[in-house]
Amino acid sequence: MARRGAADRSFGFGRDGMAALQGEPPAVARQRVRRALRQARGETPLSQTDVARKLGWSLSKMQRIEGGDVAVSLTDLRALLDVYGMTDAAEIARLTDDARASRRQRWVTPPEHRAYLTPALRQLIQFETQAVGVRAYQPMLIPGTLQTPAVADIILSSKSNRISGEERRVRYEFRMERRRRTFEDTAGPRYLLILDESVIKRHIGGAKVMAEQLRSLVEVAQRPNVKIRVVPLNKGALLGLVAPFQKLDLSENNEDSVVYREWWDRDEIVHDPAEIRYVTEIFE
From 83, 134, 188, 220, which residue has the greatest number of CB atoms within 10 Å? Predict the structure, then answer.
């Protein structure tokens, strides 16, 4: 897996300053374990149901493990590798290390941020530290990572956004830090963004604020790792029906990706390969 540089090994924001990373992000390690286990089972004639029966597990447990929803315990990992007939000592050791890392708790996120950021957002932080490429689509608003401070403040302070002042502060700081890491770090990922035309025509905070936001978009688009495209309203019948999403590539392997999707009041991390392929096809 391609790794980002040492300069990326910290994630500092908020009143408490810098929160140091300790080892690799658990969500990234869990992604590797999930993908390796799916691949190992795929090399056998066994279905998820077959494996669950052999181990006396519920089918839902198998689905959660392969779906990346839970971190696999070392005991369960060894049981699965035994069923799959894996004997390569080096591979077993690597997966064991990854399984340990995937269960590390309270990685990077200070307590106040754990209280106000969704589980999916906390995972997104971890995936972004390792991503080598991002494909993003937004049909309604400038993505949070590209919002200017003024636009971010207006959106988070909206009357329809029923969050407390403390939560608004945390989310604002989180948004600004993600912007810095994605677009100001020299080790930032390849970033491909598609906006619906309505996004750049929607007025937020008046002409001066929007002019500043659009100038900022133009400046970011000049960076060598960033490409921004706009879908005209008369061309966007398909994309206009899709919710906002980001696809994060964690290495150059096409199968090593996750998708983050968000709606007004909820969000999720998607690991399902079929859904990731669907999102990729729509984007391309």
Answer: 134
Residue spans of alpha helices (H) in 69-206: 74-83, 89-102, 111-116, 119-130, 149-156, 165-183, 197-201
- Enter the pTM of the model: 0.73
User: In 10 A of CB 274, how many CB atoms?
Assistant: 8
CATH number at residue 32: 1.10.260
Token duo for residue 135: 């494909």
* 8 Å CB contact between 68 and 31: yes
Q: Are 53 and 24 in contact (CB under 8 A)?
A: no
Q: What pLDDT sits at residue 228?
A: 95
Q: Output the DSSP codes for 246-271.
A: EEEESSSSTTSEEEEEE-SS-EEEE-
The last residue of one of the domains, among 102, 127, 147, is 102
Least confident residue range of 37-41, 69-73, 85-89, 183-187 = 183-187
Cβ atoms of residues 125 and 109 within 8 Å: yes
| Within a domain: 2 | no
C-beta of residue 64 within 8 angstroms of C-beta of residue 105: no
Yes or no: say if 10 and 259 are a contact pair by the CB < 8 Å rule: no
Q: What is the pLDDT of residue 17?
A: 34
pLDDT digit string, tens, across residues 199-255: 999 989 989 999 999 999 999 999 998 999 998 888 766 665 678 899 999 888 777
User: What range does the domain containing 46 cover?
Assistant: 26-102
Whether residues 196 and 253 fall in one domain: yes
